[in-house]
Write a structure and sequence with these properties.
By secondary structure, the chain is α/β, with parallel strands linked by helices. The chain is 46% helix and 22% strand. The radius of gyration is 16 Å and the shape is globular.
Length: 158
């Protein structure tokens, strides 16, 4: 009986951890999250679970995050999968052992918010946004980034 209780507790704890790591935010909440960077540079990567280029570049972002862990820099993965696909995103995060913050953006009508990120953005992914320590959007890149290109994009803002 003790083993069953322990296993049940571990499952609840583990599931709670994953759900707390993966948050669903609407666009105003997401904007507020980016504005509250607290003197930290944010590297925001927009992706989906079905985008091969997005998934392929993720290790570059995770490596960059580890290299600059002593700097005031934070990586946020923003999934454009729908909130109805939350379990799929959580499963993906678990399978890929992603420890960084993951947001599922609950903002289906891209025409209303994409221009607020960058008027030149078509909505294509993968896309990376750099938010400086004051909460300003300072760099933007659409397309896959290898590690060196990612460092080139981030370094001016550290």
């Amino acid at each position: 009986m003790k083993k069953i209780l322990l296993i049940a507790w571990l499952l609840v704890y583990y599931t709670t951890f994953l759900y707390s790591q993966v948050k669903v935010l609407d666009f105003p909440q997401f904007q507020k999250r980016l504005q509250n960077s607290k003197d930290t540079v944010l590297v925001v990567n927009f992706w989906t679970t079905w985008c091969k280029e997005c998934v392929a570049e993720m290790p570059n972002f995770i490596k960059m995050n580890k290299v600059f862990q002593s700097e005031k820099i934070k990586l946020i993965f923003v999934s454009l999968d729908t909130k109805h696909q939350l379990k799929k995103v959580i499963s993906f995060v678990k399978r890929k052992k992603i420890k960084q913050e993951v947001i599922v953006l609950d903002a289906q009508d891209g025409n209303k918010w994409i221009d607020l990120i960058n008027p030149k953005w078509s909505g294509a992914i993968p896309t990376t946004l750099i938010v400086n320590k004051k909460g300003n959007y300072v760099a933007f890149h659409t397309g896959s980034l290898d590690y060196e290109a990612l460092l080139t994009l981030v370094n001016p803002y550290l």
